[in-house]
Amino acid sequence: MGSFPGSPRTLRGAIISVASTDPVPRVVTFQFNPDRVTRSLSPRSAPAAAAAAPGDAMRSPGAPVESISMTVEVDAADQLESGDPVAATVGIAPQLAALEMLLYPSTAQVVASSALLLAGTIEILPPEAPLTVLAWGPTRVVPVRLTGLSVTEEAFDQALNPIRASVALSAQTLSYHDLQITDAGYSLFVAHQVIKETLASTASARSAITAGP
After folding, report:
1. 3-state secondary structure 148-188
2. What is the rounded CA–CA span in Å between residue 196 and residue 200?
3. Spatial CA neighbour of 76 closest among 25, 117, 32
4. Which of 46, 138, 156, 191 has the fewest C-beta atoms lying within 10 Å of its C-beta?
5. What's the CA gap between 16 and 27, in Å, rounded?
6. Is residue 1's pLDDT more than 50?
7. Mean pLDDT value of segment 148-166
8. Contact 151, 104 (CB under 8 A)
9. 118 vs 39, which has greater pLDDT?
10. Quick one: where's region Disordered (predicted)?
11. Do 114 and 107 contact (CB within 8 A), yes or no?
């Protein structure tokens, strides 16, 4: 929220995790929006055999590979000042755990896999991860795979619970190359690309108008 009275309310970024076995999504809302989001796009490499043919240099194999990184700040100062009992007991441990659990399989999946191993199952496929979505404003809601999470705990209470930390997140956007057509993330990325195309067309139209005759 802005610091001036009457200023518009700023949306908060979030990471949403939706498991196929649980209809209720897990939403991790950022306490403070990161000051900086770094995005890196690189062209998707064409298959080596196809690239050898004449004319293939101009072919587009599809959506680029996009990497996203940001640093999220978590601070219990406001909660401690207002007497929040959870913050007073465990600090920001719940917020950190919610972020970290985005990289963990569920305990139920681990126990089920262990039971299959004990029963003599020869091959066990890794459990399917939930669909993870980065929501960064109305025009940027994309499926992602978290590729890294680094937590720096910067302050602690008397019981050594963290009360302030910064979390560096890195993720890769999942496109229609990475997801099955029946996956909800597939349609989500297609909609994301349509929004990008619309914004690009708007920029082109504005440039033409500004240039004039």
Report:
1. EEEEEEEEECCCCCEEEEEEEEEEEECCCCCCCCCCHHHHH
2. 6
3. 32
4. 138
5. 5
6. no
7. 96
8. no
9. 39
10. 39-63
11. no
Question: Are the C-beta atoms of residues 170 and 148 closer than 8 Å to each other?
Answer: yes
**177 residue type, one letter:** H
pLDDT at 39: 97
In the sheet with 14-18, reading across from the earlier edge strand, the strands are: 26-29, 14-18, 131-135, 141-156, 162-173, 65-75, 37-42
- Burial of 114 by CB count in 10 Å (0-12 exposed, 13-18 middle, 19+ buried)? exposed
Per-residue confidence (pLDDT) for residue 137, from 0 to 100: 92
Please provide the size of the chain in residues: 213
Q: Are 25 and 16 in contact (CB under 8 A)?
A: yes
Q: Which is nearest to 189 in space by CA: 142, 135, 147, 154?
A: 142
Distance (Å, rounded) from C-alpha 200 to C-alpha 194?
Answer: 10
Distance, CA of 171 to CA of 143 (rounded, Å):
10
Encoded tokens for 65: 């590979």
Whether pTM exceeds 0.85: no
First-last CA distance in the chain: 43
The answer to whether the beta carbons of residues 189 and 144 sit under 8 Å apart is: no
